[in-house]
Amino acid sequence: MTAQPTSPAPETPAGQAAAETPEDHLVTTLHSLDLPEGTLDYTATAGTVVLREEPEGEEYGRGKAYAELFSVSYLAQNTGETQRPVVFAFNGGPGASTVWLHLGLLGPRRVDSGDAGAPAAPPHRLLDNHETILQVADLVVVDAMTTGYSRPAPGQKPARHHGLAEDRDLIAAFVVDWLTRHQRWTSPVHLAGESYGTTRASAVAARLMDRYYLAVAGIVLISPVLDFGTIVFSEGNDRPYLHYLPTYAAIAHAHGRHEERMLQDVVDEAEAFAEQEYPALLAAGLRLAPAQKQEAAARIGALVGVDPEWVERADLRIEHMAFLAELLRDRGLVTGRIDGRFTAPAGNGNAARMETDPSIDQLAPSYTAAINQYLGTELEFSSDVVYEIMSGRVHPWSYKDFENRSVEVASDLARLLRKSPHTRVLVSHGYHDAATPFHASEHVLAQLAIPQEDYEQRIRIEYYEAGHMMYCHEPSRLALSQHLREFVTGAGEEPEQD
Protein backbone atom coordinates (compact mmCIF):
# COMPACT_ATOMS: atom_id res chain seq x y z
CA MET A 1 0.00 0.00 0.00
CA THR A 2 1.14 3.53 -0.71
CA ALA A 3 0.20 6.69 1.10
CA GLN A 4 -1.02 9.42 -1.21
CA PRO A 5 0.18 12.96 -0.53
CA THR A 6 -2.33 15.32 0.99
CA SER A 7 -2.30 19.10 1.03
CA PRO A 8 -0.17 20.33 3.93
CA ALA A 9 -1.78 22.57 6.47
CA PRO A 10 -0.81 26.22 6.08
CA GLU A 11 2.06 27.27 8.27
CA THR A 12 1.27 29.45 11.25
CA PRO A 13 3.55 32.48 11.70
CA ALA A 14 5.56 32.47 14.90
CA GLY A 15 3.68 33.84 17.86
CA GLN A 16 0.31 33.69 16.07
CA ALA A 17 -2.46 31.43 17.35
CA ALA A 18 -3.43 28.55 15.12
CA ALA A 19 -6.29 29.28 12.77
CA GLU A 20 -9.66 28.42 14.20
CA THR A 21 -10.98 27.20 10.85
CA PRO A 22 -10.56 23.41 10.76
CA GLU A 23 -9.29 21.56 7.70
CA ASP A 24 -10.01 18.13 6.30
CA HIS A 25 -7.51 15.55 7.51
CA LEU A 26 -7.52 12.64 5.04
CA VAL A 27 -5.02 9.95 4.11
CA THR A 28 -5.48 7.68 1.08
CA THR A 29 -3.72 4.33 0.75
CA LEU A 30 -3.72 1.68 -1.98
CA HIS A 31 -4.51 -1.98 -1.25
CA SER A 32 -5.21 -5.32 -2.90
CA LEU A 33 -7.38 -8.20 -1.72
CA ASP A 34 -6.89 -11.67 -3.18
CA LEU A 35 -10.28 -13.31 -3.78
CA PRO A 36 -11.17 -16.64 -5.38
CA GLU A 37 -12.51 -14.64 -8.35
CA GLY A 38 -9.29 -12.64 -8.70
CA THR A 39 -7.54 -9.63 -7.22
CA LEU A 40 -9.61 -6.71 -5.96
CA ASP A 41 -7.67 -3.44 -5.95
CA TYR A 42 -9.06 -0.63 -3.83
CA THR A 43 -8.23 2.63 -2.13
CA ALA A 44 -8.97 3.40 1.51
CA THR A 45 -9.37 7.04 2.52
CA ALA A 46 -9.39 7.51 6.28
CA GLY A 47 -9.81 10.72 8.17
CA THR A 48 -12.00 13.59 9.23
CA VAL A 49 -13.98 15.88 6.94
CA VAL A 50 -15.30 19.27 7.95
CA LEU A 51 -19.04 19.77 7.60
CA ARG A 52 -20.42 23.27 7.23
CA GLU A 53 -23.87 24.72 7.66
CA GLU A 54 -25.50 27.75 6.11
CA PRO A 55 -26.39 30.58 8.50
CA GLU A 56 -29.93 30.56 9.79
CA GLY A 57 -32.47 33.25 9.08
CA GLU A 58 -32.00 35.76 6.30
CA GLU A 59 -28.19 35.74 6.31
CA TYR A 60 -26.97 33.80 3.31
CA GLY A 61 -23.34 33.05 2.72
CA ARG A 62 -20.62 30.47 3.06
CA GLY A 63 -21.33 27.79 5.60
CA LYS A 64 -19.71 27.75 9.01
CA ALA A 65 -17.83 24.67 10.19
CA TYR A 66 -19.76 22.80 12.85
CA ALA A 67 -18.50 19.19 12.84
CA GLU A 68 -15.51 17.05 11.93
CA LEU A 69 -16.71 13.53 11.16
CA PHE A 70 -14.38 10.56 10.89
CA SER A 71 -14.94 7.96 8.19
CA VAL A 72 -13.15 5.40 6.07
CA SER A 73 -14.12 5.23 2.39
CA TYR A 74 -13.27 2.12 0.40
CA LEU A 75 -13.41 2.52 -3.38
CA ALA A 76 -12.79 -0.41 -5.70
CA GLN A 77 -10.45 0.29 -8.60
CA ASN A 78 -10.57 -0.82 -12.23
CA THR A 79 -14.01 -2.43 -12.01
CA GLY A 80 -15.33 -0.90 -15.22
CA GLU A 81 -18.51 0.17 -13.41
CA THR A 82 -19.61 3.78 -13.79
CA GLN A 83 -22.49 3.73 -11.31
CA ARG A 84 -21.30 1.32 -8.64
CA PRO A 85 -23.53 1.10 -5.55
CA VAL A 86 -22.24 2.77 -2.41
CA VAL A 87 -23.05 1.58 1.12
CA PHE A 88 -22.94 4.01 4.06
CA ALA A 89 -22.65 2.09 7.33
CA PHE A 90 -22.86 3.05 11.00
CA ASN A 91 -23.41 1.37 14.35
CA GLY A 92 -25.58 2.68 17.13
CA GLY A 93 -25.52 2.85 20.92
CA PRO A 94 -26.06 5.76 21.00
CA GLY A 95 -22.35 6.08 21.69
CA ALA A 96 -20.98 3.19 19.62
CA SER A 97 -18.41 3.75 16.91
CA THR A 98 -18.74 1.84 13.65
CA VAL A 99 -15.81 -0.45 14.43
CA TRP A 100 -18.25 -3.38 14.78
CA LEU A 101 -19.69 -3.35 11.26
CA HIS A 102 -16.41 -2.09 9.85
CA LEU A 103 -14.15 -4.88 11.12
CA GLY A 104 -16.79 -7.48 11.91
CA LEU A 105 -18.74 -7.72 8.67
CA LEU A 106 -18.38 -5.18 5.88
CA GLY A 107 -14.80 -4.06 5.36
CA PRO A 108 -12.01 -5.75 3.36
CA ARG A 109 -10.26 -6.61 6.63
CA ARG A 110 -11.94 -8.26 9.60
CA VAL A 111 -11.02 -8.95 13.18
CA ASP A 112 -10.53 -12.47 14.49
CA SER A 113 -12.78 -12.03 17.54
CA GLY A 114 -13.59 -15.64 18.37
CA ASP A 115 -17.08 -16.65 19.43
CA ALA A 116 -19.12 -17.73 22.41
CA GLY A 117 -17.13 -20.18 24.49
CA ALA A 118 -13.91 -19.35 22.64
CA PRO A 119 -13.25 -15.58 22.54
CA ALA A 120 -9.98 -14.58 20.87
CA ALA A 121 -6.95 -14.17 23.13
CA PRO A 122 -4.23 -11.56 22.54
CA PRO A 123 -2.32 -10.84 20.44
CA HIS A 124 -5.37 -9.90 18.37
CA ARG A 125 -5.16 -10.11 14.61
CA LEU A 126 -6.82 -8.99 11.41
CA LEU A 127 -7.74 -11.29 8.54
CA ASP A 128 -8.63 -10.66 4.92
CA ASN A 129 -12.41 -10.56 4.56
CA HIS A 130 -13.18 -12.59 1.47
CA GLU A 131 -16.88 -11.86 1.95
CA THR A 132 -16.54 -8.06 2.08
CA ILE A 133 -19.35 -5.99 0.58
CA LEU A 134 -16.61 -4.17 -1.36
CA GLN A 135 -16.87 -6.97 -3.93
CA VAL A 136 -20.15 -5.49 -5.17
CA ALA A 137 -20.31 -1.94 -3.76
CA ASP A 138 -18.10 0.85 -2.51
CA LEU A 139 -18.21 1.26 1.24
CA VAL A 140 -18.18 4.25 3.61
CA VAL A 141 -18.08 3.60 7.35
CA VAL A 142 -18.77 6.72 9.39
CA ASP A 143 -18.62 7.39 13.13
CA ALA A 144 -21.36 9.46 14.75
CA MET A 145 -20.49 12.51 16.83
CA THR A 146 -18.23 11.85 19.85
CA THR A 147 -17.56 8.28 18.70
CA GLY A 148 -14.44 7.13 16.90
CA TYR A 149 -12.49 10.26 15.97
CA SER A 150 -15.59 12.37 15.26
CA ARG A 151 -15.68 15.63 17.18
CA PRO A 152 -17.39 19.04 16.97
CA ALA A 153 -15.60 21.81 15.11
CA PRO A 154 -13.61 24.22 17.31
CA GLY A 155 -15.95 26.47 19.21
CA GLN A 156 -18.92 24.14 18.74
CA LYS A 157 -20.51 22.05 21.48
CA PRO A 158 -20.87 18.26 21.03
CA ALA A 159 -24.21 18.19 22.84
CA ARG A 160 -25.92 19.87 19.89
CA HIS A 161 -25.46 16.57 17.98
CA HIS A 162 -26.44 14.24 20.83
CA GLY A 163 -30.06 13.52 20.00
CA LEU A 164 -32.18 11.61 17.53
CA ALA A 165 -33.08 14.55 15.29
CA GLU A 166 -29.67 16.23 15.55
CA ASP A 167 -27.77 13.02 14.84
CA ARG A 168 -30.12 12.26 11.93
CA ASP A 169 -29.46 15.63 10.33
CA LEU A 170 -25.69 15.34 10.84
CA ILE A 171 -25.40 11.93 9.19
CA ALA A 172 -27.71 12.97 6.35
CA ALA A 173 -25.52 16.01 5.76
CA PHE A 174 -22.45 13.77 5.69
CA VAL A 175 -24.00 11.52 3.03
CA VAL A 176 -24.88 14.51 0.85
CA ASP A 177 -21.39 15.96 1.32
CA TRP A 178 -19.71 12.66 0.41
CA LEU A 179 -21.79 12.14 -2.73
CA THR A 180 -20.97 15.68 -3.84
CA ARG A 181 -17.24 15.42 -3.14
CA HIS A 182 -16.99 12.12 -5.00
CA GLN A 183 -19.44 12.96 -7.81
CA ARG A 184 -21.53 9.89 -7.00
CA TRP A 185 -25.06 11.29 -7.05
CA THR A 186 -26.17 8.77 -9.69
CA SER A 187 -24.87 5.75 -7.78
CA PRO A 188 -27.44 3.58 -5.96
CA VAL A 189 -27.17 4.57 -2.29
CA HIS A 190 -27.66 2.05 0.52
CA LEU A 191 -27.69 2.70 4.26
CA ALA A 192 -26.67 -0.05 6.68
CA GLY A 193 -27.18 0.29 10.41
CA GLU A 194 -26.94 -1.95 13.43
CA SER A 195 -28.92 -1.65 16.69
CA TYR A 196 -29.58 2.07 17.31
CA GLY A 197 -27.94 2.40 13.91
CA THR A 198 -31.18 0.99 12.49
CA THR A 199 -33.08 3.76 14.25
CA ARG A 200 -30.57 6.15 12.68
CA ALA A 201 -30.77 4.51 9.23
CA SER A 202 -34.55 4.76 9.09
CA ALA A 203 -34.53 8.38 10.24
CA VAL A 204 -31.64 9.35 7.93
CA ALA A 205 -33.22 7.68 4.91
CA ALA A 206 -36.44 9.59 5.51
CA ARG A 207 -34.50 12.83 6.06
CA LEU A 208 -32.59 12.38 2.80
CA MET A 209 -35.89 12.04 0.96
CA ASP A 210 -37.80 14.74 2.85
CA ARG A 211 -35.03 17.35 2.82
CA TYR A 212 -32.90 16.56 -0.24
CA TYR A 213 -35.14 14.36 -2.44
CA LEU A 214 -32.48 11.68 -2.32
CA ALA A 215 -34.22 8.30 -2.52
CA VAL A 216 -31.99 5.53 -1.18
CA ALA A 217 -32.00 2.25 -3.07
CA GLY A 218 -31.88 0.13 0.07
CA ILE A 219 -31.81 0.12 3.86
CA VAL A 220 -30.13 -2.69 5.82
CA LEU A 221 -31.43 -3.06 9.38
CA ILE A 222 -29.20 -5.37 11.45
CA SER A 223 -30.61 -6.15 14.92
CA PRO A 224 -33.23 -3.42 14.54
CA VAL A 225 -35.14 -1.29 17.00
CA LEU A 226 -37.79 0.85 15.32
CA ASP A 227 -40.11 1.47 18.28
CA PHE A 228 -38.58 1.77 21.74
CA GLY A 229 -41.93 1.07 23.34
CA THR A 230 -41.56 -2.56 22.26
CA ILE A 231 -38.29 -3.10 24.15
CA VAL A 232 -38.08 -0.59 27.02
CA PHE A 233 -39.48 -2.01 30.26
CA SER A 234 -41.53 0.67 31.99
CA GLU A 235 -44.42 0.78 34.42
CA GLY A 236 -47.71 -0.10 32.74
CA ASN A 237 -46.11 -1.19 29.45
CA ASP A 238 -46.53 -4.93 28.90
CA ARG A 239 -45.25 -4.98 25.31
CA PRO A 240 -41.60 -5.79 26.13
CA TYR A 241 -42.59 -8.81 28.23
CA LEU A 242 -44.43 -10.25 25.23
CA HIS A 243 -41.74 -9.46 22.67
CA TYR A 244 -38.79 -10.70 24.73
CA LEU A 245 -40.27 -14.10 25.56
CA PRO A 246 -39.30 -15.82 22.23
CA THR A 247 -35.74 -14.55 22.69
CA TYR A 248 -35.64 -15.95 26.22
CA ALA A 249 -36.76 -19.30 24.84
CA ALA A 250 -34.06 -19.24 22.16
CA ILE A 251 -31.35 -18.43 24.73
CA ALA A 252 -32.63 -21.19 26.98
CA HIS A 253 -32.33 -23.56 24.02
CA ALA A 254 -28.71 -22.46 23.47
CA HIS A 255 -27.91 -23.53 27.04
CA GLY A 256 -29.54 -26.94 26.88
CA ARG A 257 -32.89 -26.17 28.48
CA HIS A 258 -34.76 -27.75 25.55
CA GLU A 259 -32.92 -31.00 25.02
CA GLU A 260 -33.54 -32.87 21.77
CA ARG A 261 -35.68 -30.05 20.35
CA MET A 262 -34.89 -27.97 17.30
CA LEU A 263 -34.40 -24.25 17.85
CA GLN A 264 -37.06 -23.36 15.30
CA ASP A 265 -39.64 -25.54 17.08
CA VAL A 266 -38.91 -23.80 20.38
CA VAL A 267 -39.10 -20.35 18.81
CA ASP A 268 -42.34 -21.15 16.99
CA GLU A 269 -43.96 -22.35 20.21
CA ALA A 270 -42.78 -19.28 22.14
CA GLU A 271 -43.98 -16.88 19.44
CA ALA A 272 -47.40 -18.51 19.30
CA PHE A 273 -47.71 -18.23 23.09
CA ALA A 274 -46.50 -14.60 23.08
CA GLU A 275 -49.04 -13.63 20.42
CA GLN A 276 -52.07 -15.60 21.59
CA GLU A 277 -52.23 -16.67 25.25
CA TYR A 278 -49.68 -14.43 26.96
CA PRO A 279 -51.37 -11.06 26.24
CA ALA A 280 -54.63 -12.28 27.75
CA LEU A 281 -52.85 -13.60 30.84
CA LEU A 282 -51.12 -10.28 31.50
CA ALA A 283 -54.29 -8.31 30.79
CA ALA A 284 -56.23 -10.40 33.33
CA GLY A 285 -54.05 -9.17 36.18
CA LEU A 286 -55.72 -9.64 39.56
CA ARG A 287 -58.66 -11.31 37.86
CA LEU A 288 -56.47 -14.36 37.26
CA ALA A 289 -57.26 -17.14 39.73
CA PRO A 290 -54.29 -18.51 41.74
CA ALA A 291 -54.50 -21.86 39.97
CA GLN A 292 -54.52 -20.13 36.58
CA LYS A 293 -51.50 -18.04 37.54
CA GLN A 294 -49.57 -21.12 38.68
CA GLU A 295 -50.43 -22.89 35.43
CA ALA A 296 -49.29 -19.88 33.40
CA ALA A 297 -46.05 -19.63 35.39
CA ALA A 298 -45.35 -23.30 34.76
CA ARG A 299 -45.89 -22.81 31.04
CA ILE A 300 -43.66 -19.75 30.88
CA GLY A 301 -40.98 -21.34 33.05
CA ALA A 302 -40.85 -24.37 30.76
CA LEU A 303 -40.56 -22.16 27.69
CA VAL A 304 -37.76 -19.95 28.98
CA GLY A 305 -35.93 -22.46 31.17
CA VAL A 306 -36.41 -21.00 34.66
CA ASP A 307 -38.18 -22.01 37.88
CA PRO A 308 -41.97 -21.45 37.59
CA GLU A 309 -42.05 -20.11 41.16
CA TRP A 310 -39.62 -17.36 40.11
CA VAL A 311 -41.93 -16.51 37.20
CA GLU A 312 -44.94 -16.42 39.51
CA ARG A 313 -43.16 -14.10 41.97
CA ALA A 314 -42.40 -11.82 39.00
CA ASP A 315 -46.14 -11.62 38.33
CA LEU A 316 -45.56 -13.47 35.02
CA ARG A 317 -43.48 -10.48 33.81
CA ILE A 318 -39.82 -11.27 33.18
CA GLU A 319 -37.49 -8.29 32.76
CA HIS A 320 -34.53 -9.08 30.51
CA MET A 321 -31.65 -8.18 32.84
CA ALA A 322 -33.28 -10.25 35.57
CA PHE A 323 -33.68 -13.19 33.19
CA LEU A 324 -30.02 -13.06 32.16
CA ALA A 325 -29.03 -13.27 35.83
CA GLU A 326 -31.50 -16.05 36.60
CA LEU A 327 -31.26 -18.49 33.68
CA LEU A 328 -27.92 -20.08 34.66
CA ARG A 329 -27.87 -19.14 38.34
CA ASP A 330 -27.71 -22.83 39.24
CA ARG A 331 -24.39 -23.01 37.37
CA GLY A 332 -23.01 -19.80 38.91
CA LEU A 333 -23.13 -18.00 35.55
CA VAL A 334 -24.69 -14.91 34.01
CA THR A 335 -25.79 -14.81 30.38
CA GLY A 336 -24.93 -12.25 27.70
CA ARG A 337 -27.33 -9.48 26.68
CA ILE A 338 -25.84 -8.64 23.29
CA ASP A 339 -25.51 -12.36 22.63
CA GLY A 340 -27.21 -14.83 24.95
CA ARG A 341 -24.86 -17.64 23.94
CA PHE A 342 -22.05 -16.00 25.96
CA THR A 343 -21.63 -16.59 29.69
CA ALA A 344 -19.36 -15.47 32.54
CA PRO A 345 -19.09 -16.27 36.26
CA ALA A 346 -21.56 -14.39 38.42
CA GLY A 347 -19.90 -11.99 40.84
CA ASN A 348 -22.86 -12.29 43.19
CA GLY A 349 -24.80 -15.52 43.01
CA ASN A 350 -27.86 -13.84 44.52
CA ALA A 351 -27.82 -10.70 42.33
CA ALA A 352 -31.21 -9.77 40.93
CA ARG A 353 -29.69 -8.48 37.71
CA MET A 354 -26.59 -9.26 35.68
CA GLU A 355 -23.56 -7.20 36.74
CA THR A 356 -22.04 -6.79 33.27
CA ASP A 357 -22.49 -8.17 29.76
CA PRO A 358 -20.14 -11.09 29.06
CA SER A 359 -20.70 -10.87 25.31
CA ILE A 360 -19.43 -7.29 25.08
CA ASP A 361 -16.69 -7.93 27.65
CA GLN A 362 -15.35 -10.87 25.64
CA LEU A 363 -15.66 -9.34 22.15
CA ALA A 364 -14.72 -5.68 22.64
CA PRO A 365 -10.99 -6.11 23.42
CA SER A 366 -10.26 -7.70 20.04
CA TYR A 367 -12.14 -4.94 18.19
CA THR A 368 -10.42 -2.21 20.24
CA ALA A 369 -6.93 -3.53 19.59
CA ALA A 370 -7.63 -4.22 15.92
CA ILE A 371 -9.10 -0.82 14.99
CA ASN A 372 -6.35 1.18 16.67
CA GLN A 373 -3.62 -0.92 15.07
CA TYR A 374 -5.34 -0.97 11.68
CA LEU A 375 -5.94 2.77 11.42
CA GLY A 376 -2.43 3.64 12.55
CA THR A 377 -0.51 1.14 10.42
CA GLU A 378 -2.36 -0.12 7.35
CA LEU A 379 -4.41 3.06 6.82
CA GLU A 380 -1.62 5.36 8.10
CA PHE A 381 -4.00 7.71 9.93
CA SER A 382 -3.22 9.26 13.30
CA SER A 383 -5.04 11.69 15.59
CA ASP A 384 -4.35 13.52 18.82
CA VAL A 385 -7.60 12.26 20.38
CA VAL A 386 -8.62 8.79 21.53
CA TYR A 387 -10.60 6.58 19.15
CA GLU A 388 -13.81 6.15 21.16
CA ILE A 389 -15.03 2.56 20.67
CA MET A 390 -17.98 3.07 23.04
CA SER A 391 -18.52 6.50 24.51
CA GLY A 392 -20.78 7.42 27.41
CA ARG A 393 -20.10 11.09 26.65
CA VAL A 394 -23.02 11.21 24.20
CA HIS A 395 -25.44 11.07 27.12
CA PRO A 396 -27.87 12.52 27.87
CA TRP A 397 -29.22 11.72 24.40
CA SER A 398 -32.15 13.92 23.42
CA TYR A 399 -35.53 12.57 22.32
CA LYS A 400 -37.21 15.94 22.72
CA ASP A 401 -39.52 15.41 19.74
CA PHE A 402 -41.10 12.40 21.47
CA GLU A 403 -42.33 13.94 24.71
CA ASN A 404 -45.18 11.89 26.19
CA ARG A 405 -44.97 9.23 23.49
CA SER A 406 -42.82 6.30 22.49
CA VAL A 407 -39.61 6.97 20.58
CA GLU A 408 -40.14 5.43 17.17
CA VAL A 409 -38.96 5.69 13.56
CA ALA A 410 -41.38 3.17 12.09
CA SER A 411 -43.44 6.10 10.82
CA ASP A 412 -40.31 7.50 9.12
CA LEU A 413 -39.62 4.17 7.46
CA ALA A 414 -43.23 3.79 6.33
CA ARG A 415 -43.36 7.33 4.96
CA LEU A 416 -40.17 6.73 3.00
CA LEU A 417 -41.51 3.49 1.51
CA ARG A 418 -44.70 5.27 0.49
CA LYS A 419 -42.74 8.12 -1.12
CA SER A 420 -40.01 6.06 -2.75
CA PRO A 421 -41.40 3.02 -4.62
CA HIS A 422 -37.97 1.56 -5.42
CA THR A 423 -36.49 1.57 -1.92
CA ARG A 424 -36.07 -1.92 -0.45
CA VAL A 425 -35.32 -3.12 3.08
CA LEU A 426 -33.23 -6.03 4.38
CA VAL A 427 -33.82 -6.96 8.03
CA SER A 428 -31.42 -9.23 9.93
CA HIS A 429 -32.37 -10.77 13.29
CA GLY A 430 -30.29 -12.80 15.73
CA TYR A 431 -32.34 -15.34 17.68
CA HIS A 432 -30.13 -14.92 20.77
CA ASP A 433 -30.15 -11.12 20.81
CA ALA A 434 -31.44 -9.89 24.19
CA ALA A 435 -30.80 -6.22 23.31
CA THR A 436 -33.17 -5.87 20.35
CA PRO A 437 -35.45 -8.94 20.36
CA PHE A 438 -36.51 -10.25 16.96
CA HIS A 439 -40.19 -10.60 17.86
CA ALA A 440 -40.44 -6.87 18.63
CA SER A 441 -39.03 -6.05 15.21
CA GLU A 442 -41.36 -8.53 13.52
CA HIS A 443 -44.33 -6.88 15.20
CA VAL A 444 -43.33 -3.33 14.24
CA LEU A 445 -42.61 -4.23 10.63
CA ALA A 446 -45.97 -5.97 10.32
CA GLN A 447 -47.71 -2.78 11.50
CA LEU A 448 -46.05 -0.38 9.04
CA ALA A 449 -48.51 1.94 7.31
CA ILE A 450 -47.75 0.59 3.83
CA PRO A 451 -49.66 -1.63 1.39
CA GLN A 452 -49.44 -5.34 2.13
CA GLU A 453 -47.84 -6.06 -1.23
CA ASP A 454 -45.01 -3.64 -0.36
CA TYR A 455 -44.46 -5.44 2.93
CA GLU A 456 -44.32 -8.77 1.11
CA GLN A 457 -42.25 -7.69 -1.89
CA ARG A 458 -39.93 -4.94 -0.64
CA ILE A 459 -39.00 -6.10 2.87
CA ARG A 460 -36.74 -9.14 3.21
CA ILE A 461 -36.36 -10.63 6.71
CA GLU A 462 -33.59 -13.08 7.65
CA TYR A 463 -32.71 -14.91 10.88
CA TYR A 464 -29.42 -16.18 12.31
CA GLU A 465 -28.55 -18.56 15.14
CA ALA A 466 -26.50 -15.97 17.01
CA GLY A 467 -26.98 -12.67 18.81
CA HIS A 468 -26.96 -8.93 18.21
CA MET A 469 -23.62 -9.01 16.38
CA MET A 470 -24.38 -12.26 14.63
CA TYR A 471 -21.23 -11.96 12.50
CA CYS A 472 -19.07 -13.21 15.40
CA HIS A 473 -20.69 -16.60 14.68
CA GLU A 474 -18.95 -17.85 11.52
CA PRO A 475 -21.92 -19.60 9.83
CA SER A 476 -24.05 -16.51 10.48
CA ARG A 477 -21.34 -14.18 9.18
CA LEU A 478 -21.11 -16.11 5.94
CA ALA A 479 -24.89 -16.21 5.54
CA LEU A 480 -25.38 -12.53 6.32
CA SER A 481 -22.57 -11.52 3.97
CA GLN A 482 -24.22 -13.49 1.18
CA HIS A 483 -27.60 -11.93 1.94
CA LEU A 484 -26.05 -8.45 1.84
CA ARG A 485 -24.43 -9.04 -1.54
CA GLU A 486 -27.70 -10.36 -2.93
CA PHE A 487 -29.59 -7.40 -1.54
CA VAL A 488 -27.25 -4.73 -2.90
CA THR A 489 -27.03 -6.32 -6.34
CA GLY A 490 -30.70 -7.32 -6.53
CA ALA A 491 -29.73 -10.94 -7.15
CA GLY A 492 -32.64 -13.36 -7.08
CA GLU A 493 -35.31 -10.68 -7.36
CA GLU A 494 -38.11 -11.09 -9.80
CA PRO A 495 -38.03 -8.55 -12.65
CA GLU A 496 -40.64 -5.83 -12.66
CA GLN A 497 -43.69 -6.51 -14.78
CA ASP A 498 -44.69 -4.13 -17.56
Automatic annotation (TrEMBL):
GO biological process terms held by the UniProt record: proteolysis
Molecular function in Gene Ontology: serine-type carboxypeptidase activity
A family per Pfam: Peptidase_S10
Keywords on record: Carboxypeptidase, Hydrolase, Protease
InterPro entries xref list: AB_hydrolase_fold, Peptidase_S10
Segments crossing the lipid bilayer: none
Protein name: Carboxypeptidase
Organism: Brachybacterium saurashtrense
